[in-house]
Amino acid sequence: MSQTPPPAGPPDQPYPGPQPGQPYAGMPPLAGNPGPDYGPPYGAGPQHWGAPVPQRKYSLLAIFSLVLAILGTTVIALVMGIAALLRIPSRNQRGKGFAIAGIVISSLWIVAIAIAVAIPGGGEPTRDAGGQVTTTQTARPTALRVGDCVAEIIEVTEVNKVEIVPCSGPNGGEVYAVFEQPAGDWPGTAAVVAAAEKGCTDRWIQTKRKLAPTSDILYLHPIESGWRLGDRGFTCLVVPK
Hints:
This is DUF4190 domain-containing protein. Helices cover about 30% and strands about 15% of the residues. Among the domains are: about 60-120, no CATH class; about 135-240, no CATH class. It has a 6-stranded antiparallel β-sheet with strand order 1-3-2-4-6-5, covered by helices on one side. It is built from 5 helices and 6 strands; from the N terminus they run αααββββαβαβ. It is of the alpha+beta class.
């Protein structure tokens, strides 16, 4: 048997030809070529500030000047205050007000001490031809001489004036010795008191007098402010207990 060939199929359809190429997304411009314009950034970057300015330090001289002036160390405080004023500008320091205050307070101390020393009780007492005080008078302690008698002296921290009375009448003590310490820096209160006690005790022994049971030894000595102004005098008295 012969086979009948199958009918021919529909003619082959041609494949579509190549389509024109579609454009692709543009490539970023090469370096050196102008690119598109962009808007400004959304926010400014962090700001960089300069280093903080260090605070000026206080002048130690100015501080010490004020402290010592308040404590009555007049000469040292005055010198430190002046030195501080001269050094503060060149060293860019603080404390000018302290230095000025120290100078002012020291100056006031010096004026007050000078007045107290000069006229605490009217100056030198009036004496007769023999050097004796014949009437009751008020004077500074440094005006006392050996043989002078005084009214009662109350033991206080400072004695700025004494009442000198005739020794022929009732009195509160008699001066038996007066001496001075050599010039030098203030040695401290303890050293001055020790010098007064030793000096007055030694000088009492030299008088060869016997201390009565009802009597005692009293001494007057300089204080620091007076010492810095030149007061070196010590006064020894025998007083009733």
